[in-house]
Amino acid sequence: MPESKIRVAVVFGGRSSEHAISCITAGSVMAAIDRDRYEVIPIGISPDGRWVLAPADQQLAVSDGRLPQVSGDGAALALPFDPSSGGLLVVPPGEVPQVLGAVDVVLPLLHGPYGEDGTIQGLLELAGVRYVGAGVLASAVGMDKAFMKIVWAAQGLPVGPYVIIGDRAWRNEDERKRKIVEIRELGLPVFVKPSRAGSSMGITRVTREEDLEAAIETARAHDPKVIVEAAVNGREIECGVLQGLDDGPAEASMPAEVVMAGAHDFYDFETKYLDGSSSLAIPPRLPDEVIAELRRMAVQAFDALDCEGLGRVDFFYTDDGRLVLNEINTMPGFTPTSAFPQMWAATALPYPDLVDRLLQTALNRPLGLR
Ligand SMILES: Nc1ncnc2c1ncn2[C@@H]1O[C@H](COP(=O)(O)OP(=O)(O)O)[C@@H](O)[C@H]1O
Ligand SMILES: [Mg+2]
Fold this sequence. Notes:
Blueprint: E1 6-13, H1 19-32, E2 38-45, E3 51-53, E4 76-78, E5 88-91, E6 98-101, E7 105-108, H2 119-127, H3 136-143, H4 145-154, E8 162-165, H5 167-171, H6 173-186, E9 190-194, E10 204-206, H7 212-220, E11 226-230, E12 234-242, E13 251-252, E14 256-260, H8 269-274, E15 278-281, H9 288-304, E16 310-318, E17 323-329, H10 339-345, H11 351-364
Parallel strand pairs: 1-2, 1-7
Antiparallel strand pairs: 2-3, 4-5, 5-6, 8-11, 9-10, 9-11, 12-13, 12-14, 12-16, 14-15, 16-17
Bound molecules: adenosine-5'-diphosphate and magnesium ion.
Magnesium ion binds near residues 314 and 327.
């Protein structure tokens, strides 16, 4: 029996500012994987990018208000990108590398740059290893809020007005002035964001023009590419999407409304993870036909980027009754209390079955160009 187990490498942590969130997700996913069918290899990536074989008993939850983190000590791991080299290499300190063996599927539970953005997906493509979730292009486009909007708009999907500020434009005095003029046309308030980040890191809601430059610098601390968006007045509704089974079309979950209580202006990092001031309403209190339209549009948004595996599509439902796309997350938060698993649980797919479905879809997909 043990010999026929499917070997799953769960990769977590990583170099982005969402390191801790990824660890928390990995803790819950590994607890839900059926060990009678799967053998789990926990692979941590430290904040400075070292791959290590993580201890099986590592604490991957918030404890005493402290966020979990992968330590870069211990046996280093390497994934040789030569598909014939036979799988993962492990390098214990001071010893020669040993082949740890081939893995059947990788579950890259990484959020943000160097994980959710196509980089690790590229490594896995080169190594000829199957993995869960979006491929290189979809991951990269789904990470970059500017390109995501460009691709959606080109396919007729509704996105709000925005201005992109590249690094060179911001450093050049004339171009910077032109960008400020463009931003003025968006009106106030605006949301200033790093183009490639997540968990609301580096995002500021700006209500006065004199605060704009500081907000752009805050975003630039995360990403030299910044996007400034007109604020959309509306409720926030999220919808889970899964790749179809047996070559069928992608499927959308029952959506959820993010309900915020308390003093927060928007769905910021604290509201998301720390102070418990947000909750999910599943199903959202919306007319049935709006829910149906939103689910259709979530699948279109997923397909527009050639996504695979899973995605969470986030919308605004405006005060005047329109749906506007905000963003897609190709590796959404995935603890049992996160929106994505909650929405699927409300769509008759409990957490362990959801994890199993992701692994099965990844195992069934062909290697190479798809
Ligand atoms: N254009 C916008 N209009 C209104 N609220 C916004 C807008 N953009 C972002 N927000 C608020 O900021 C939050 C985080 O923005 P989002 O683009 O989803 O970034 P992240 O990838 O970090 O989650 C949203 O959930 C929403 O509360
Ligand atoms: Mg978001």
